[in-house]
Design brief:
Elements: H1 3-8, H2 24-29, H3 31-46, H4 55-74, H5 84-105, H6 108-111, H7 113-116, H8 125-155, H9 170-192, H10 198-210, H11 226-234, H12 237-249, H13 255-281, H14 283-286
Length: 287
């Protein structure tokens, strides 16, 4: 057999292009795989459970009830014009979506080591599918919030609500949250392959970050504490949560904060993609 004929039958699979490049065309070619992974993730959550999708509602509702009881009634943090359950649920629903995307995508390399070591596919398909699959839980929790909102509007004479054109901003807020969580998650997942200690800190760190966001009380409570206000405004999720409440409860939308969050999201997504692609090239030698 000649060397020419042998070389013609050899196929080399390796990185194509610079490590900082995001190959959107390749991800689109593997879109069927992405949707298959999305279905796998959603099915795995509901498998062998009695309540099924209702588990996504139990956590935010119970957490909102406890927050409304402790921080709303006892501490008086919640604004008087908004029922405590609505105030806290409107902050917890977007926060849970962001936190779940970060926590689950941060385990991309370690949780899929066996699959990635044997089969070629664009590695970004895995965290992308995780972010998309978490839209299902967000949708269920958001629907529960809408039901509660309408319930308060119908049965509580002290609370009135009517939809406004600001609701058109909701899809934009969801995209920002998803991309922000995806960028942070893939950056952490890439760093975790070398620094395994990060895997223990991610969940705890994300939980602590919630207390540096306006989930428990609105930013108006910090007007007399400029250092704390600055700390909260550095958190990119602050403007998203404030905007989520603004579109439902008729408050001013923090356009300046949203602009900062969009720039931050773009930067963290680009940095996360670059580091992720770089680690991907030597992934099999590290994990």
């Amino acid at each position: 057999m000649s060397n020419a004929s042998a070389s013609e039958r050899e196929t080399f699979i390796g990185p194509d292009g610079p490590w900082w490049k995001l190959d959107v065309a390749e991800l689109w070619r593997y879109r069927d795989l992405v949707w298959l992974l999305v279905r796998r993730d959603i099915t795995a959550v509901y498998k062998q459970t009695v309540l099924g999708p209702l588990w996504h509602v139990v956590q935010p509702l119970l957490t909102s009830f406890m927050f409304a009881l402790i921080f709303g009634r006892a501490a008086g943090f919640a604004p008087k014009e908004i029922p405590g359950m609505l105030f806290y649920l409107s902050g917890l629903v977007p926060w849970f979506f962001f936190a779940n995307v970060v926590n689950k995508t941060s385990k991309t390399f370690t949780a899929n080591a066996a699959l990635m070591g044997k089969v070629y596919f664009p590695r970004l398909a895995v965290p992308l599918s995780v972010a998309i699959s978490n839209l299902a839980s967000f949708g269920i929790q958001f629907f529960a919030f809408l039901v509660l909102l309408i319930g308060y509007h119908v049965f509580d004479p002290a609370f009135t609500w009517s939809p406004s054109p600001a609701l058109l901003l909701l899809p934009v807020l969801v995209v920002i949250m998803g991309l922000l969580g995806l960028g942070a998650g893939i950056l952490i997942s890439a760093l975790t392959t070398k620094y395994r200690d990060l895997s223990f800190l991610v969940g705890f760190g994300v939980q602590l970050l919630m207390y540096a966001s306006p989930v428990i009380f609105p930013l108006s409570r910090l007007q007399n504490f400029p250092m704390l206000l600055t700390l909260f405004n550095v958190n990119p999720m602050t403007s998203v949560i404030e905007s989520m409440r603004a579109v439902f409860f008729g408050q001013p939308i923090p356009w300046g904060g949203l602009g900062y969050t969009c720039v931050f999201t773009l930067c963290i997504l680009m940095l996360g993609t670059a580091v992720f692609n770089k680690v991907e090239r030597s992934f099999a030698d590290i994990v």
